[in-house]
Protein backbone atom coordinates (compact mmCIF):
# COMPACT_ATOMS: atom_id res chain seq x y z
CA UNK A 1 0.00 0.00 0.00
CA UNK A 2 1.54 3.28 -1.10
CA UNK A 3 1.28 6.41 1.01
CA UNK A 4 0.31 9.46 -0.99
CA UNK A 5 1.86 12.77 0.08
CA UNK A 6 1.32 16.21 -1.34
CA UNK A 7 4.67 17.92 -1.82
CA UNK A 8 5.39 21.31 -3.30
CA UNK A 9 8.78 22.18 -4.75
CA UNK A 10 10.10 25.71 -4.33
CA UNK A 11 12.95 26.63 -6.68
CA UNK A 12 15.14 29.64 -5.95
CA UNK A 13 17.15 31.64 -8.48
CA UNK A 14 20.39 29.97 -7.48
CA UNK A 15 19.03 26.58 -8.51
CA UNK A 16 18.51 25.33 -4.97
CA UNK A 17 15.17 23.92 -4.05
CA UNK A 18 13.33 22.72 -1.00
CA UNK A 19 10.47 20.30 -0.59
CA UNK A 20 7.54 21.65 1.35
CA UNK A 21 4.95 19.30 2.72
CA UNK A 22 1.78 20.36 4.53
CA UNK A 23 3.22 19.05 7.79
CA UNK A 24 6.14 21.47 7.55
CA UNK A 25 4.23 24.65 6.72
CA UNK A 26 3.71 25.70 10.33
CA UNK A 27 6.61 27.61 11.81
CA UNK A 28 7.43 26.07 15.13
CA UNK A 29 10.12 28.03 16.92
CA UNK A 30 11.53 26.94 20.23
CA UNK A 31 12.09 30.22 22.05
CA UNK A 32 14.60 28.62 24.37
CA UNK A 33 17.04 28.82 21.45
CA UNK A 34 17.25 32.57 22.06
CA UNK A 35 18.22 32.24 25.74
CA UNK A 36 21.83 31.55 24.83
CA UNK A 37 24.43 33.90 26.30
CA UNK A 38 25.43 35.08 22.83
CA UNK A 39 22.01 36.71 22.36
CA UNK A 40 22.38 38.48 25.72
CA UNK A 41 25.82 39.67 24.65
CA UNK A 42 24.47 40.91 21.31
CA UNK A 43 21.64 42.74 23.05
CA UNK A 44 24.05 44.32 25.52
CA UNK A 45 26.27 45.44 22.67
CA UNK A 46 23.35 47.13 20.88
CA UNK A 47 22.20 48.84 24.08
CA UNK A 48 25.75 49.98 24.85
CA UNK A 49 26.24 51.47 21.39
CA UNK A 50 22.88 53.25 21.62
CA UNK A 51 23.84 54.73 24.99
CA UNK A 52 27.19 55.93 23.64
CA UNK A 53 25.42 57.44 20.63
CA UNK A 54 22.95 59.26 22.90
CA UNK A 55 25.70 60.63 25.16
CA UNK A 56 27.78 61.83 22.20
CA UNK A 57 24.72 63.44 20.59
CA UNK A 58 23.98 65.35 23.77
CA UNK A 59 27.64 66.32 24.27
CA UNK A 60 28.24 67.44 20.68
CA UNK A 61 24.90 69.01 19.76
CA UNK A 62 22.59 69.72 22.70
CA UNK A 63 25.10 71.22 25.14
CA UNK A 64 26.68 73.60 22.57
CA UNK A 65 23.19 74.62 21.41
CA UNK A 66 22.22 75.44 24.99
CA UNK A 67 25.46 77.39 25.55
CA UNK A 68 25.04 79.46 22.39
CA UNK A 69 21.34 80.00 23.09
CA UNK A 70 22.19 81.39 26.51
CA UNK A 71 24.61 83.94 25.05
Architecture overview:
The chain is mostly helical and 71 residues long. It has a domain at 36-71. The protein is 48% helix and 11% strand. It has one helix and two strands; from the N terminus they run E-E-H. A hairpin with a 5-residue loop joins strand 1 (8-11) and strand 2 (17-20). The chain crosses the membrane at residues 46-68. Keywords: Membrane, Transmembrane, Transmembrane helix.
Write the layout of secondary structure elements.
Blueprint: E1 8-11, E2 17-20, H1 37-70
Antiparallel strand pairs: 1-2
Terminal-residue CA separation: 91 Å
Low-confidence blocks of residues: none
For the sheet with most strands, the description reads: 2 strands, antiparallel
Helix and strand element order: EEH
* Beta-strand share of residues: 5-15%
Number of helical elements: 1
Radius of gyration, CA atoms, in whole angstroms: 26 Å
- Structural class by SSE content: mainly alpha
Mean pLDDT, to the nearest integer, reads: 78
